[in-house]
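Feature request, filed as a ticket because there's no other form

It would be nice if the structure record came with a short human-readable summary line next to the tokens. Right now we just get the raw output. Example of a typical job, pasted below so the devs can see what we mean:
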Amino acid sequence: MTLKWCRKNLEAHSQAVYDLILEEYPHVQCEVADCVDKCGLCTDVPFAIRNNATILARDPRGLYAKLKQGFGFLEKPPLPGSYDYAMAQQAAESAGTGEGEPS
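Raw output as currently delivered:
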């Protein structure tokens, strides 16, 4: 997951949100660009670009809530039948059988 931030928008609206995201989700890639080609938005409302989708809100608190809601799937266990679930099962099985340990 990547987040892209407009430098002008950070200065005007969303610096506190940016700081919280970096603190709470250090594994999320955050990029600050001089311009993200969202002319008009950068001075009007707080926003960020998450995986090429523009997430905006009326105030910084709303932006933080929307971004945090989107991160919810990062904190939950993978769904059965998904690739991540299969990889977690495989890792658990190999850890339980002691593969790679000397006999």
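Something like this underneath would help us a lot:
The radius of gyration is 19 Å.
The first strand starts at residue 2 and ends at 6.
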